[in-house]
Amino acid sequence: MNSLKLKWDGHNHTEFCKHGSGRPLREYAERAVSLGFERYTVTEHPPLPEKWIDDPVLMRELAMDMAELPLYLKEVKAVKAEFAGRLDIRVGLEMDYLFENESFTEAVLAEADGLEEAIISVHYLPGRGGMRCIDYTPEDFRDNLLTYYGSMEKVVDAYYDHVEMAVRSAAAWPWRRRIGHINLIEKFRLALPPIDQAQIRGRLTNILPILAECGVGVDVNTAGLRKSTCGIPYVPEWFMDACAERGIELVYGSDAHHPDDVGAGWEWFAAAAKRK
Ligand SMILES: [Zn+2]
Ligand SMILES: [Zn+2]
After folding, report:
1. How far away, in angstroms, is 223 Cα from ligand 2 center?
2. CA-CA distance, 5 to 239, in Å (whole number)?
3. Which ligand gives the minimal distance to the CA of 224?
């Protein structure tokens, strides 16, 4: 139950991402073809509720506007048609788990005509003064999450509570679906107080039956390898084994925000998946 049978990059961004390279989807797709990928899922960040984060500058960088959603879907479908026969492009979105705002998510999905796959990611947690990004900067994490919860142990518990809620929120979706970068909470692990690995192992172990029950796969996201504050993928190898044993789908994802990052970390994934 992994994507080794198929060379597939299942998590990628486009010029509709405002914190990315601004490079067009076609360049990403060409890069995927040149690396021998057979399937390629485009998973842009969808719109967010107004004032979701209490920082207008950061808000503008996080997501497309609602008015851009149909333009995004149109472009992915056009590029999919152009690449037909060369690369199987899938129309996707990287949905956010919007705590206590799930009706907004459902409203976005109702507008997403032609959607084929969806990732559900936890990028936000309640923190100082409202919702906060967990992956913005180590300083922001320290000031607005660590001081708010009081310890890494408590932030980490809150994070996996949200991951569990996110998985359950996707259970009824009709599209192929997977949880995004399940250990994103480790992004700043080398710049913040350490996280107890036993806590991570315990929480991930408890999530396994929920994934199986909800029919939600795992985005084996390698972006953490490229972050100097992280240096490891966002899915541990032991967890890949545990998912494979339970028939939970594992899909490699580069999380490219620039065409040069398409396929990054594939060798790590292929080696890890081969051992299953
Ligand atoms: Zn992004
Ligand atoms: Zn993400």
Report:
1. 9
2. 20
3. 2
Angle at 135 between CA 134 and CA 138, to 5 degrees: 90
**Residue 274 CA to ligand 2 centre (angstroms):** 25
Taking CA 213 as the corner, what is the angle to CA 112 and CA 38, rounded to the nearest 5 degrees?
A: 50
Q: How far is the CA of 33 from the centre of ligand 2 (A)?
A: 23
How is 83-128 classified by DSSP, letter by letter?
A: HTTT-EEEEEEEEE--TT-HHHHHHHHHH-TT--EEEEE--EEEET
Closest ligand to 121 CA? Answer: 2
The 3 state secondary structure assigned to 180-197 is: CCCCHHHCCCCCCCCCCH
- HSE-up (13 A, CA, CB side) for residue 186: 22
At 228-255, the pLDDT tens digits run 999 999 999 999 999 999 999 999 999 9
- Residues 57-70 have pLDDT tens digits of 899 999 999 999 99
Cα(117) to centroid of ligand 2, in Å?
15
pTM above 0.85, yes or no: yes
